[in-house]
Amino acid sequence: MDLAAFRIAIALAVLGIALLYVASEIEGHTANSVDATVREVGALLLAAGILSVFWELLGRRALTRELLDAAKLSADIQNAGLHGVTANYLDVEWEELLERAREVDVFFAYGQTWRTVHATTLRDLIEHNGTQLRVVLPDQTNAPLMAQLADKFQYSPAKLVRYIDDAERDIANLHRLAADKSVVELRRTKEFPVFTYYRFDQSHFVVFYSQAPGRFKVPTLELEQGGWLSGFFRAQFDALWEAASVRPLDQDTFP
Prior knowledge:
Elements: H1 3-26, H2 32-80, E1 82-86, H3 94-100, E2 103-107, H4 112-117, H5 119-126, E3 132-138, H6 143-153, H7 157-177, E4 183-189, E5 195-200, E6 203-208, E7 220-224, H8 228-243, E8 245-246
Parallel strand pairs: 2-3, 3-4
Antiparallel strand pairs: 1-7, 2-5, 4-8, 5-6, 6-7
């Protein structure tokens, strides 16, 4: 506790008590307004002194603890590389990210809405020399995986397979449009997706799936390169990529 602040608080309390004593002594000997004023000033000073003591003893310590907790939380967020959180993945500036990116990694179940909305920007991306697009999709030839995913999304397996086929055809079209020094690659994974992952150079985005069946607003994390959390999801994608099977994108491999 600050000694000077404590002395001031005690002085206020003592002065307040003194004025209350004076008010009681002069009561009836002066005008009522004078008695009341002295009494009110004394009560105010006494209250201020007492509150100052309690603040020094309790409030400042509580505030210090809160500041220390906030500082620790801030350090944790920085170490994780967490740059932003939203409950709606549509809030992310996908177009701007695609326009600036040179390397893009994507892992989703089929991403119909995302692919459709950003079709033009995806074409612009791969038509620039030196860009790279890598996509991992669930393996639609894996019947158990399709049955599990279809149950998750409340689709029929056949409908889910059609959605993934459409995604593969879109990636194949991008491959055919790519500039000479650009790369478009597609792989199939047998792993069940529990999140969607996007990387645009140094920026990473993770969109979670809901555990319960049906559609819900789900958290979307924006992560910056260098944090342990972005490192975790990048390593997850790299592991999926290495274990996934290559899907050739030549024209004759698509009906």
